[in-house]
Amino acid sequence: MSLLTLVGAVGVAVAIALFAYFGVTMLENNSLAGEEQQIASDYGTIVGRQEGGTEPTATQDLCAGVECAETRINCPNGAQVACRNACSNGMCSNCTPQCGAASAACQPEWECGTWSACVNGSETRVCVDQNGCDNDTRTQPRPCQSAQQVAGKVDIVDIQFSSGIDDRKKENWNGEWVLLEGSNVDMTGWKLADAGSHEFTFPVGFVLTGQVKLHSGDGQNTASDLYWNCCRRPIWNNDGDKATLKDAAGAVVDEFAYG
Question: Which of 3, 94, 110, 161 sits at 20 to 30 Å (Cα–Cα) from 60?
């Protein structure tokens, strides 16, 4: 082999070695750069989706704004217990109240109405348990208080059915009257009626002490004189009529007929 040939062979070998080293390094660098570009591209896609809002980032709360009712039961001891029903996936599910939480006896809370008129020596009022311990409503009686004490019955003593002058004029109607007599009787809500369609209701708080005249015409009520203040014609018929007195409960107390 000549010297020239030997030098050429060595040069080729060196060139191959250098290419192998630098070529591989460049390929690796290019590969890493490609991966970095792909990662950056993927990251940009994710960020773009989050910022653009094209895809949801959280699960929707189906129970938002849903308010479930209570379940209530009455326990054997009379107490009432409750629990709040729970929401799941937008639907309310029933809970089961536990009577063990209400081991103490239910404490009633009574709310009472006003006392009624005095009837037969007593008055009543209706009371309702607001806590519903036994779903009870009670009527509570008591003796009539102070001026409401009943010391006797009420009688229709007399009826003046004509004024004796022109009954066609209303200013003469107060000459007609019914005379009632009693002792310390609260007549609130009592009624006096004729045989026709006329009916007088005694005013609230009126207590009969002695005698009172109920006049057919108009006027201002006092302890001794009351007025119908109602009608277009006289109350009592001249040829015969009947007066009926009823207490606040509707029971007939007295009657008076003439003619």
Answer: 94
